[in-house]
Amino acid sequence: MNRRRILIGAGATLALGAAGGVAWRTSTGSGGDYDRLTARFRAPLTDAPPVTELVRYAALAASGHNTQPWRFRLSDGAVDILPDLTRRTPAVDPDDHHLFVSLGCAAENLRIAAAATGRPGELALGADGRSLRYSFTSGAAQPDSLFAAIPARRSSRTIYDGHPIPPSALARLRQATTAPGVAFHFLTDRPSLDRVRELVVAGNTAQMADPAFMAELKHWLRFNPRAALRQGDGLFSASSGSPVLPDSLGLLAFDRFFTVASENTRYEAQIASSAAVAVFVAERSDPAHWIAVGRACQRLMLAATSLGLRHAFVNQPVEVAALRPELAALVGEGDKRPNLVLRLGYGPTLPLSARRSVEAVIV
C-alpha cells in the first residue's frame, strides 16, 4: 500500500516562475477548495445516521495507491462489502493481495462506525471468501475509542521526529491489532529497523526498474487539487509533501526527477526517523486472511491516530516476492508470507487524500 512522493526540486521552482498566477491556479485548482471538500467528506456522523453515511465512513479506510477498490450493496438489515476488480493494480499487486487488505480496512471502519452510532451488528465473511456482510442487529450504541479517529486518520509520508513510543502506547497498539489468524510484530530496535530499511531500498530499486510498475504508478498520480477532486482517488502530490503542479508539468517532473537514487535516499531518511515498524503476517495466503489483515491493520492505524502517532506504509519488502523470505525471517515467521509493513512515529500531518462520492461506491 505505498504512496510515493515525487521529488522535483528545482524543476518545480522553474515551472512555477514561468507560469502566470491566474493560469497556474486555473490549471491546478484551489488548495482551499480541496481542503474544504475533503473535510466535508469527513464530517462527524450524527446519532443513528442513515446507512449511506456509514458507507461514507467506511470509504475513509486506507487502500493501496488510494484506489478505493470497494463497492457497497445495501439491503434491508445488511450491507455487503464487495471487491471492485475494475480498480486493480496488477503491476504492484498481481494477486490482488492489497485489494483484499483494503476491503478489510473498509469493512472494519463500517463495523466500528455502525456500532458506535446505534447500529450494532455482526461482520462476517461472505460464502465466497472474497466479500463481507455487515448484518444489523438490535441494541444500544457501543462506544469505541477508535470511532473518533476514523475521519482524522491519514498517512503521513514524511520525516518523523525519532522520539520513541512509550510502552503504554505500544501495549494499546498491540491490543488493537489482536485478530484470529493474523500475527503482528513490532520492531523498535535499531538493527531491525536498519534491516527493514535495507529491504525497502532493495524493493524500491527493483520496482522502479520495472516499466509496468512505473506506468501504473503514474496512472494513479494526482499532481494538483483539481485532478485529485476530479478523480476522487489516487495519490495527491501534496499528501506526500510534494509541490502542486499542472498535470503536464507534473508528468514532465515525474519523468525527469523521480529517480531511484532520490527515492532511496528519501526512504532511508524516513525509516531512520521512525520509532517503530509494524509487520503483519497472516496464517494463510488467501483473500479471507488478507481481509482479516486489513481489519487488524485498520484498527492499528486508528489506534495510532488516537494516540497522536503518524503512520505510513513501506510495503516494498512484501510487494517484491523475492524479499518476502528475508522479512519473514526477520520477524521469526519462517515460510509464511508477510502482508504489510507500516512505519510509525511522531511527526507532522499532511493534507488528506480525496475520496469518491458515496453514490459512486454503492451498487
From TrEMBL:
<protein>
    <submittedName>
        <fullName>Nitroreductase</fullName>
    </submittedName>
</protein>
<feature type="domain" description="Nitroreductase">
    <location>
        <begin position="152"/>
        <end position="345"/>
    </location>
</feature>
<dbReference type="InterPro" id="IPR000415">
    <property type="entry name" value="Nitroreductase-like"/>
</dbReference>
<dbReference type="InterPro" id="IPR050627">
    <property type="entry name" value="Nitroreductase/BluB"/>
</dbReference>
<dbReference type="GO" id="GO:0016491">
    <property type="term" value="F:oxidoreductase activity"/>
</dbReference>
<dbReference type="InterPro" id="IPR029479">
    <property type="entry name" value="Nitroreductase"/>
</dbReference>
<dbReference type="Pfam" id="PF00881">
    <property type="entry name" value="Nitroreductase"/>
</dbReference>
